[in-house]
Amino acid sequence: MLHARPGDFSDKEWRLATFFVSLFDQCYWVAGSVLGALMGELIKFNTTGIDFAMTALFVVICTDQWKAAKSHIAAVTGFVCGILFLAIIRSSNFILPALAATAAVLLFLRRLIEKNMEED
């Protein structure tokens, strides 16, 4: 199997190869998206219950992350911000402000979180 490294080629060859890899990646992505959209229009199926499946998947992932994490600061911050903004906004539009607030609080608490991680 051929393993190419940047030093094996001239700068021009490496840039050209990188360009074509990126170009083909983009083409595959666009072609796959178009094919998926077309097939989605042709193949009809009942999506009843998928909202519950996504919620259950979130709960499972969240539980697994909670068990694996040494510190629960990030999770608790996300839960609190989510509940707070749901109570304030009272609509499905609460998610973006809750995520922004969570990111802001976590950036503010970054040093505390890093200190806790070093101690463990």
Description:
This protein is mostly helical and 120 residues long. The protein has 2 domains: 8-42; 50-119, no CATH class. 77% of the residues lie in helices and 0% in strands. The chain is built from 5 helices and no strands. α3 runs antiparallel to α4. The longest helix has 32 residues, at 11-42. The protein is flat and about 55 Å long. The mean pLDDT is 87.
Structure at a glance:
The chain has 120 residues and is mainly alpha-helical. The chain has helices at 11-42, 50-68, 73-89, 95-108, 110-119.
Low-confidence stretches: none
Report the major sheet. Answer: none
Order of helices and strands: HHHHH
Annotation field: number of helices = 5
Span between N and C termini? Answer: 42 Å
Question: How many individual β-strands?
Answer: 0
Number of domains: 2
Report the mean per-residue pLDDT as an integer: 87
Write the layout of secondary structure elements.
Blueprint: H1 11-42, H2 50-68, H3 73-89, H4 95-108, H5 110-119
Helix pairs in contact: 3-4
Task: Name its key features.
120 residues, mainly alpha, 5 helices, 77% helix, flat
